[in-house]
Design the sequence.
């Protein structure tokens, strides 16, 4: 029976009874092991395409929930093996690499620090700080409006870069593993992933709360996580699937 592969974990990880697998109907999440490494899997039908939003959510929930209790190496969504024996072969072939990577992640989880500008506050800043933007605001001809748009976009990008650099520098006091992610929305101010010891979550929350206070009314700050280390581990893309 084909099996869907979620991630590589220590062999002693035990999926909970409420772990939801992908597929319709969803199968039961099980673990395939080789020595001291394992793989979270579930039986899946290859007659139906994978990738529905609820399946992606199930995949992420399983990996994120696992990351809270054990290190996990995410496997690219949609990776399906012919059977559990093929998964066991993968674990055997790459055992030492998997074990070393899991050891590096022991006790650490990913968080994402995300900030989004208040649109009104952002535009007020841009108008106040840029005389040309302010002068062009009332113009109606196409060339002037085009130039206005370019200037505003440039100003926002400069602010995003400066604010991101500031937050990244502060977060480096918490961990060396800080990664700037690309903006996914025009009002994104900060989008930074970090790999941090689970026990330092309170410190991270203190840092973000302080930033939120400093930027109150300007940037809405939040923390996402704990998450599986998607941004710090290259998702496994096994050739045999």
Sequence:
């Amino acid at each position: 029976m084909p099996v869907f592969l979620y991630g590589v974990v220590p062999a002693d990880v035990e999926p909970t009874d409420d772990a939801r697998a992908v597929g319709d109907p969803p199968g039961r999440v099980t673990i395939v092991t080789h020595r001291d490494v394992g793989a979270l899997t579930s039986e899946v039908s290859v007659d139906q395409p994978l990738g529905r939003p609820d399946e992606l959510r199930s995949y992420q929930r399983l990996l994120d929930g696992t990351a809270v209790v054990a290190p996990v190496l995410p496997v690219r969504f949609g990776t399906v093996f012919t059977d559990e024996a093929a998964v066991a072969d993968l674990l055997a072939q790459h055992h030492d690499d998997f074990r070393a990577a899991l050891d590096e992640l022991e006790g650490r989880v990913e968080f994402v620090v995300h900030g989004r500008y208040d649109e009104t506050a952002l535009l007020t800043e841009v108008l106040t700080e840029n005389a040309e933007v302010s002068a062009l605001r009332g113009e109606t001809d196409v060339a002037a409006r085009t130039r206005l748009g370019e200037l505003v976009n440039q100003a926002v990008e400069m602010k995003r870069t400066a604010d991101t650099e500031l937050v990244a520098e502060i977060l480096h006091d918490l961990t060396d593993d800080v990664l700037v992610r690309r903006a996914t929305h025009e009002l994104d101010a900060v989008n930074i992933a970090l790999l941090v010891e689970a026990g330092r979550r309170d410190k991270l929350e203190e840092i973000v709360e302080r930033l939120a206070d400093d930027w109150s009314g300007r940037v809405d700050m939040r923390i996402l996580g704990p998450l599986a280390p998607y941004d710090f581990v290259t998702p496994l893309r096994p050739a045999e699937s």
User: Anything to note?
Assistant: The radius of gyration is 23 Å. Residues 81 and 186 are 39 Å apart (CA to CA).
